[in-house]
Design a protein that fits this description.
Strand order of the largest sheet: 5-4-3-2-33-32
Distance between the termini: 22 Å
Strand content: over 45%
Number of strands: 34
Radius of gyration: 20 Å
Length: about 400
């Protein structure tokens, strides 16, 4: 069902190299940390980043920051911010904070007794959805689960009865009505294992909230569906797959596969896009070169499918990527410290800035007026993408053939 088109990437000359050479400006913030930052999120001018050791960093775009040491019982698995509300999954615990700038006041905390994979907080901060990966105790297996918390209380829960190994990611609409998760939908694939996407609907209109399964769509045999995004328009779900080299778009009504984009690399670890998934971005992380990134325009049907409006490669595995709400700014970060910031205007994509921080990048976030880059031993906030775009506009452009 793939319907892609060849594209030309417009690139700006003279912005390669280190940040200082690219922009002439110093970073707003440079922190050296004795840990590895793995997850991040941004909203309302505030960044949140979590580490393997379990520390939580709350940063503003001017360089102010607060550190919360070990707020839970393990590494920070996931963070979700809808300012001023913040949800954090640490080990088996979900904690919600109320933010005032970078100051975080704990509102509640709950130990769910299972290893958490992902959390998402509603726009009003009332609900927190979670995805648990289950656990094993000798011969006893506890299935994973998807649920919705209202404060330190489970409002609704659904047990995921498939293999707990494929449970990686969850995404919910901002009103928490629909929740999509990666799991092993039934029936399984021909080899007995298949991973894909399952969609749930949360209904709090009655006296007792409910969480009901809407559909499940298998996408991969043996390997994993690694990350998903659900559109706020409630039309589409985008899913990246491991070792299947596909970025898939599903119809949210019934889970039907609308189109899939195949890349020459392996393991599409991450996906993102604008709020309504009119534009979808992805990249490849492992196992060997090439490490391509791509920007797709979603045409919303099986006949026309999608257009590839930009693509390129990095020298190292692309560990993380991010898009702002309208996908006008897109960022990618690699295992070799490379970072890339793109500007999209309509269907034209330009390189706004790029550089190398000299360390492994695990987390990258596009802010309102800055860019967060973090990873193994460091957190950096780079100033004002708006300024970068002015620099790019005056630097001169050249049309390049896309790289294979």
């Amino acid at each position: 069902m793939k319907h892609g088109k060849t594209a030309v990437l417009v690139a700006v000359i003279g912005l390669a190299g280190a940040w200082m050479r690219a922009s002439g400006q110093a970073p707003v913030l440079e922190l050296s940390v004795e840990d590895r930052v793995r997850v991040s999120d941004h909203d309302g001018g505030i960044y949140v980043a979590g580490t393997l050791r379990g520390d939580l960093y709350v940063l503003d775009e001017a360089g102010g920051h607060t550190v919360i040491s070990a707020p839970g019982n393990g590494q920070v698995e996931h963070v979700s911010i809808e300012y001023p509300h913040l949800a954090v999954a640490t080990g088996t615990t979900v904690t919600q904070y109320l933010l005032t700038g970078t100051t975080a006041a704990e509102q509640w905390s709950m130990n769910l007794g299972e290893e958490l994979r992902s959390v998402d907080i509603s726009a009003d901060g009332r609900y927190v959805s979670y995805l648990g990966g289950g656990w094993y105790d000798q011969d006893i297996e506890m299935p994973g689960s998807v649920g919705v918390l209202e404060g330190p209380t489970i409002a609704a829960r659904y047990d995921l009865l498939g293999d707990s190994d494929p449970i990686y990611c969850m995404d919910a609409t901002s009103d928490m009505e629909y929740i999509a998760v990666t799991d092993e939908p039934s029936p399984p694939g021909p080899e007995g294992e298949a991973t894909g996407v399952e969609l749930f609907r949360f209904d709090d209109s009655g006296p007792q909230p409910t969480l009901a399964r809407v559909w499940g769509t298998p996408l991969m045999n043996d390997y994993e569906t690694t990350e998903i995004r659900i559109s706020e328009s409630k039309d589409w779900i985008a899913a990246g797959t491991s070792s299947g080299v596909y970025m898939d778009l599903l119809d949210m009504t019934d889970g039907a596969l609308m189109w899939e984009h195949e890349t020459p690399g392996k393991e599409q670890f991450a996906c993102d896009g604008d709020e309504n998934l009119q534009y979808v971005i992805g990249a490849c992380q492992a196992w060997w070169r090439p490490y391509p990134w791509f920007v797709l325009k979603n045409n919303g049907n099986e006949v026309v499918g999608y257009d590839v409006i930009a693509e390129g490669e990095m020298d190292g595995p692309i560990n993380d990527l991010d898009s702002n709400r309208d996908a006008s700014l897109l960022a990618f970060g690699s295992d070799l410290g490379e970072w890339l910031l793109l500007r999209r205007t309509g269907d034209v994509v330009e390189i706004a800035a790029e550089g190398n921080v000299g360390g492994i990048i695990d987390a990258i976030e596009v802010g309102d007026q800055s860019l967060l880059i973090a990873g193994d031993g460091f957190i950096m906030v780079l100033p004002e993408p708006g300024t970068l775009l002015l620099l790019a506009a005056g630097a001169g452009c050249v049309a390049l053939r896309r790289r294979r």
